Amino acid sequence: MDHSEHVDSTELQEITPEAVPSLLKLVSTNRVAGFDSITEGETSVLSKPIDTSQANGHQRKLSISISMPSSPTAGTKSVFSVDDKAKSFNNEIPDSSVASGIATLGKKEPKGVKFLSQPMPKGSVFVEPPPHIKKLKDKRFDSFKTWSGKLERKLSHLRGRPRISESEEEEEESVRNSENNEAPPVDRYFDALQGPELETLRPSEEIVLPDDKTWPFLLRFPVSSFGICLGVSSQAIMWKALATASSTKFLHINLTINLILWWISVALVAIVSSIYLLKTILYFEAVRREYYHPIRVNFFFAPWIALLFLALGVPPSVASKLPVALWYVLMTPIFCLELKIYGQWMSGGQRRLSKVANPSNHLSIVGNFVGALLGPSMGLKEGPIFFFAVGLAHYTVLFVTLYQRLPTNETLPKELHPVFFLFVAAPSVASMAWANIQGSFDYGSRIAYFIALFLYFSLSDSDFSSNYRFSLAWWAYTFPMTGAAIATMRYSSAVTNVVTQTLSLALSIVATLTVTALLFSTILHAFVLRDLFPNDIAIAISDRKPKPHRKWFNLGNGSSDHSRDIEMFLKFANADSKDIEAALKIPNAEATSV
Length: 594
Prior knowledge:
Blueprint: H1 2-15, E1 65-67, E2 79-81, E3 89-90, E4 93-94, H2 131-136, H3 150-158, H4 166-180, H5 186-192, E5 193-194, E6 200-201, H6 226-244, H7 255-282, H8 284-292, H9 302-312, H10 324-347, H11 353-356, H12 362-374, H13 382-404, H14 422-438, H15 443-460, H16 478-494, H17 498-528, H18 560-572, H19 580-584, H20 588-593
Antiparallel strand pairs: 1-2, 3-4, 5-6
Helix pairs in contact: 6-7, 6-9, 6-16, 6-17, 7-8, 7-9, 9-10, 9-12, 10-12, 12-13, 12-14, 13-14, 14-15, 14-16, 15-16, 16-17
């Protein structure tokens, strides 16, 4: 046996001349503190001390040697050699008197070892995510998320991400709760924002979301996007009227156009509603801030008005008669929103009509008249009259408030804006609604139609400012033009002559061109300029007002009266008091001394 092992060792030396470095090194026990220490009075098990001062190739007591390559590409062979003399043990402890040798495969000095493997990163083995993924995981948006990032943290824990400490989680949760307890009051929107739609931040204000990067798409998707649905679905109604009205039979319009536009409207309503529903699920705080916005809240009527438009413009080939229950389903959310908003108008609080009045408030009025327009075609009578009466009462108040331009109307722009075309929407739809309730285009319908026609020509003759940036809210201004064109067709059917027929055709062409122009502008800004959905600053205003910079005037004239007033104010001003005049009152004792 000894002879065969010696032969094998000799053959390996001839095949591989390069020496294999040893992975085992003899270390004396006294070099490691606390390792195999022996107290006084005890004898060592080893018979002789181990000599560690010899050079490479010396004889050691233990002859087991294991050599492994530094990497799979090193090309060396591992050798495991055991000397027979190493089999001698004393009480399961290697005897120090047993001699052994290390198996060597060459006489050359070992070359420098090249390690090809890389150290494993600490904590995680995942690759750095791309920038668009890191943007979605930015914790600065957690305050607007519905679950505040809890779901993302749970998923990251399942993937092996390091867990955040409980104290950090509690701290982050307390910060989010403090930020999301209350929505900003309406005064903050007026103080922090400016413009006819209150969507431009004032220079002295700050926002709670980062302004140095593009926000996630859902946060940039506003509720005013439903204006696209209003514009296209109203066109489907208009082309249906052009094909079926008696005064426009000479045009020979095919109902195929109405069918195509109606299906396009259905697709738009489905897409926009799905996106905004996803925003409501993932970023509910953003939706809540839009609801408290004095202008955006009116656009929450737009989805239901768009559905009413789809019901009015449904092609005969799709459905000849709609179920009555559909009318109640669509009018219920409109009724609930009206109870909230109209109640705020009358309450006299921060959201009273004299303060928040804006042409976009017409959207909350139009829903009543559209419901009154649809109801009689389904065989209903009392419900449409109810909503017509409610809409007429509040439209009269809104019309007078907007016409007066009270100093408290902080949202009214100084220059004309396309938003003013919403003045035309309510009387146009009201004229057709009353005609459906009465069964004919009588004097009541004609009075409302003539009011709408006058407002239409009055606004068309005015010069609109071109300083306003294009936005999705402009789409809501297209259906008033379309409504005026449809109302003109109804009037032309009652009073048929060349003038009314020409007017019907002209208003229809203007409405179609307007919708087409806005469609191309939307495509241009969405896919070419890529600025259709900028960061929605209106929902990211801070709850706290910026610190005012108080300045004292008339200090350079050296007047003793001014200096005494300032001194008395600083002496008696109460920091907890909000009434400055109360702070300026001097106590009687002090007043007599002065």
